[in-house]
Amino acid sequence: MHTGFEEYVRARGDTLRRFAYLLCGDRHLGEDLVQEVLVKAYRRWSRIEADQPDAYLRTALVRSHVSWLRRLSNAERPATVSHDRPAAGDFTDRQADRDELWSRLTGLTRAQRAVLVLRYYEDLDDRQIGEILRCAPSTVRVHAARGLARLRHELNPVHSTISGATS
To answer: Key word Phosphoprotein present in the record (predicted)?
Structure first.
């Protein structure tokens, strides 16, 4: 029925799944999120396609992810896994740092994670992020600041404790 929809999903499906993975921190939950949003979008595709489908679907993914109903239906949380650290200075060290950062992102609130993904992955400004999350740009900045502060603290707790003690 909607050949434009099928073409869009073939062309942009991988991008949508990557974006959802960044939001969820879990490949399978990200795929479920994309599927849920695409099912809803299919029903209104003629209107969506005429406007900006990328922006519409990105917004729908973020709102679905952050919504109260999704929070209730996805109460499972991945367990924290402790990894041994490889020798410094090589590819594996950089990969381990990257993996640790991604695992720490799962500890942020959904709104903080969404703001950081929209800011650093999608390169959106505070106003654009606020429109997607239906909040003020100042609220976006608060989520970003708190999320980054939490990441900094968790990635370097000794330094954060020393800094906090001296101020």
So the answer is: no
